[in-house]
């Protein structure tokens, strides 16, 4: 039995979870609304304020979908109650970040500034000139947008310059003189 898939999900107060006949799970909460199409082989049961996910057989495909489906629903419930955020740090001489309305302006050593418009449902905040915080209710969208920002200038191993996640550790190299 899947260790993740068999765990019940507690639905907090103020959150409404509905499942239609085609396994479309919709979660409404204080921060917004999310919906996800779950595979039709997986059965989602809602009893009072607990949600359980069941699989029909011990088939390899059903086993893999079991834990995935439970995690997706749990992430939606967490997103509409608490939300998600990713912190990025900009490291390097002359590398700066500024926010203008819904635009994020990045000065990353190119001959031109990089402008990124916040996608719908996500917000970015800038602390100082070197920290970016991406916030939203959809965990996948937050991670994807943070990765897109990071891809403009990934951290390099010699000086550590670039855009890195706040909790990321960069393996440093010595360079030519390090015999």
Polypeptide structure, described:
By secondary structure, the chain is of the alpha+beta class. It has two helices and 13 strands, in the order E-E-E-E-E-E-H-E-E-E-E-E-E-H-E. The chain has a four-stranded antiparallel β-sheet. Strands 1-6-5 form a three-stranded antiparallel β-sheet. 22% of the residues are buried.
Brief overview, please?
It is elongated and about 60 Å long. It contains 2 helices and 13 strands. The protein starts with 8 loop residues before the first strand and ends in a 14-residue tail after the last strand.
Fold topology:
Layout: E1 9-10, E2 16-19, E3 24-29, E4 32-37, E5 43-47, E6 50-54, H1 60-81, E7 84-91, E8 96-100, E9 103-107, E10 114-117, E11 122-127, E12 131-136, H2 139-150, E13 162-165
Antiparallel strand pairs: 1-6, 2-3, 3-4, 5-6, 7-12, 7-13, 8-9, 9-10, 11-12
List keywords for this structure.
alpha+beta; three-stranded antiparallel β-sheet; about 35% strand; four-stranded antiparallel β-sheet; single chain; about 180 residues
**Main β sheet profile:** 4 strands, antiparallel
Radius of gyration: 21 Å
Structural class designation: alpha+beta
Number of strands: 13
The strand line-up of the biggest sheet is 11-12-7-13
Beta fraction: 35-45%
Mean pLDDT: 93
């Amino acid at each position: 039995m899947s260790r993740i898939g068999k765990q019940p999900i507690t639905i907090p107060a103020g959150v409404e979870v509905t499942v239609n006949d085609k396994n479309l799970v919709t979660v409404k909460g204080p921060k917004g609304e999310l919906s996800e199409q779950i595979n039709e082989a997986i059965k989602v049961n809602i009893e009072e304020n607990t949600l359980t996910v069941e699989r029909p057989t011990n088939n390899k495909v059903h086993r893999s979908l079991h834990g995935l489906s439970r995690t997706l629903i749990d992430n939606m419930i967490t997103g509409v109650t608490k939300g998600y955020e990713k912190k990025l740090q900009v490291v390097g001489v002359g590398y700066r970040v500024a926010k203008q309305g819904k635009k994020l302006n990045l000065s990353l050593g190119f001959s031109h500034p990089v402008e990124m418009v916040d996608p719908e449902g996500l917000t970015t905040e800038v602390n100082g000139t070197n920290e970016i915080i991406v916030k939203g209710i959809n965990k996948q969208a937050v991670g994807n947008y943070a990765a897109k920002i990071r891809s403009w200038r990934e951290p390099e191993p010699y000086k550590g310059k670039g855009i890195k996640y706040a909790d990321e550790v960069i393996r440093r190299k010595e360079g030519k003189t390090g015999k």
